[in-house]
Specification:
The longest helix has 21 residues, at 118-138. Helix content is 31%, strand content 12%. The relative contact order is 0.19. It has 190 residues and is of the alpha/beta class. The protein is globular. Helix 1 (13-20) runs parallel beside helix 3 (118-138) and helix 3 crosses helix 4 (165-180). The chain has a single domain (9-180), classed as Lysozyme-like (3-Layer(aba) Sandwich).
């Protein structure tokens, strides 16, 4: 299958929200979001976050070494949100859900690195903001979000033990209510 290409643009939380409102969701429309962590590189290996050079290196890795047709949709670090695979095309990130879900890679190894303090907390905030934007635009209930280790065809603990799914869902839901009150009704937690 031919390489789908990458966007290779980085955005602040606010810029990402604006960008997503310009996308036409006609070629492919996802049903939910899957959250991952990069593990390698981790936060310590990218002290200044991800750069365009890193993103181009990831493109080469997925396209030329893995021979995949695409990669994840987003790479999120403590400074920005990088759009990788176009959001309106299916990506490659989770064996069971590539055709139905957006894939978000968070910079860090959250099996070992903190996700509730320091740079990990900022990655978390940026990820929550990206998920809230995408959920509001696409009408996702945050409770449909999955973490990679839930994929029955996955054998590793991605995104790591320090990423707690229910906490992320609650934070996304809270931010959606704060930002988009009245636009998309959100069902209360079960």
């Amino acid at each position: 299958m031919p390489w789908k290409g990458i966007i290779a643009k980085n955005f602040s939380v606010e810029e990402f929200d604006s960008y997503c409102h310009t996308i036409q969701w006609t070629a492919w429309r996802p049903s939910f979001i899957v959250v991952h962590n990069t593990a390698i590189p981790n936060l310590a290996q990218r002290p200044s976050g991800l750069t365009l050079q890193h993103i181009k290196g990831l493109e080469k890795f997925y396209r030329d070494e893995q021979k995949w047709s695409a990669g994840p949709h987003l790479f999120v670090d403590d400074k920005q949100i990088w759009v990788f695979t176009p959001l309106n095309l299916s990506g490659v990130h989770s064996p069971s859900w590539n055709k139905t879900a957006l894939g978000i890679e968070m910079l860090g190894n959250y099996e070992k690195e903190a996700f509730d303090s320091g740079r990990g907390l900022q990655v978390r905030k940026n990820t929550v903001a990206a998920m809230a934007t995408l959920s509001a635009i696409l009408g996702f209930d945050p409770h449909t979000m999955r973490i990679h280790r839930e994929d029955p065809l996955t054998t590793h603990a991605c995104p790591g033990k320090n990423v707690r799914k229910l906490e992320l869902i609650q934070e996304v839901q809270d931010l959606m209510i704060k930002r988009h009150a009245g636009e998309h009704p959100i069902k209360p937690a079960p």
